[in-house]
User: Fold this.
Amino acid sequence: MPKCTCMPPHPDSCPAANNYPEMAIKKAVLVCIDGWGLREDTYGNAIAQAKTPVMSGLMKDACFCPVDASGLSVGLPEGVMGNSEVGHLTIGAGQAQFQDLVRVNQALKNGTFRTQKAMVDAMMAAKNGTGRLHLAGLVSDGGVHSHQEHLYEILRTAKELGVPHTYIHCIMDGRDTPPKSGSGYLKQLEDKIAEIGHGTISTVVGRYWAMDRDKRWERVQKAFDVICRDPDEGEVIAEPVAELERRYALETPETDEFILPYVCDPAGGVADGDSFLFFNYRSDRVREICECMGVEMAFESTKARKPCLVTTFTQYKSGWDHIPQVYPPQIMRNGLSEWVAKKGLKQYHCAETEKYAHITFFFNGGNEAVFDNEDRQMIPSPKVPTYDLQPEMSAAAVGDDMAKTILEQKYEFMMCNFAPPDMVGHTGVLDAAIKGVEATDTAIGVMLEACKSAGYALFITSDHGNAEVMLTEDGLPVTSHTTNFVPFIGFDPDGKFKWNRSTGELSDVAPTMLTYMGLDIPEDMKGKSFI
Assistant:
């Protein structure tokens, strides 16, 4: 706390001294270049082939290191290339927002999966009630809506917690997996049930019926009525795998997606008082059948049931507050923009139209609201059919606007995006991408000179790679993102700070900037400062 200079001095706290910060806030600018990855090989590399005296000079003379912008570093599965949305979200939040699949897989690895409260509660409700737990979800390894490994771990947990009976209502895939692969997945499930010593296959049905999302309730009812059948109702199929294979071989085959529901356990229908858990982590295609099970019937049926508890793997719909979620939404709080606003500081965000959402909504943690003292500027993107026709896009206008605003010294924190390396990179036209990279470098140079004049530190990074890989080995165009690391550069007008390590992740950008500015780092941020 600043010392009291009043006469006589206040013995405990000084109201005047409290009006001043403990230290002067340093001002900082962040540049996020879209699609600027690091790669030494110059072949098909628009960045390496371009003339970039500003970026090359900063990488040589300022603080520089490569940071990871793909896979787990930005909340995606291992080895998956990053994108603009998760890149800006991670940079702004100072932490990765893990996709639901990644969150669950991480929990399987670190052993926390079995302790998730909502799942444990669902199982204890079954154990202490009717003794019956029902599981429903897509049974495959497609990884789009669900994953069978999650089902296996649920069965292990149910056995461990002493649930007497667990019935599995298997929804077959055939869209994210081959159309006749379901028999293999059912066989794997049978083997796991035998290995674990818990659970029975109760129902088998295609996703066409059980996972509609367009309010075609007649489809949903066909699945629902069999899942909620009365005891001993319907023909019992003792061998579910053989039945699938029989249907594949029909003159007009039934493939996985369209499998009409069949019964495998005469006692496996849902009864009043049972506990029900949906294990799909993607919400859109299981929402309707969940609504009928746990919210309100959308059609007339004699099979309406009142489970003691319906639980979902993730949030299937906001407003269903009475339905517990094993993995509720990950809320991004106290990101860089929000934290700066809470400190009463002013900030400025600028981008051209193509990337405006990324420097606002995504950078601000998926928050539509404008924070206090946050000003924004959107520069129009050029109106051309494809950006290889005007590869410079609006880089110069963004750079000029930022430089002008930096020199005004009104804002403690400023940030912008440069779109050309990504947007022109997506066209697959190498020569055009080179021009876009050069225009971006020139615009950063304009900003750098303004930062030197106004005393701002300049931090530069990228959300993902793109323009550094534009040709295959055969000379064909590459238009996709990459998994290459991206730069993180820090220019200190006073020449004092140094990076404390040689590599990191995108989530490290925000805490580094807060450290430089003289602000504390919120607990929500998981990244580590380079200073």
Q: What stands out?
A: The chain has 17 helices and 15 strands. The radius of gyration is 28 Å.
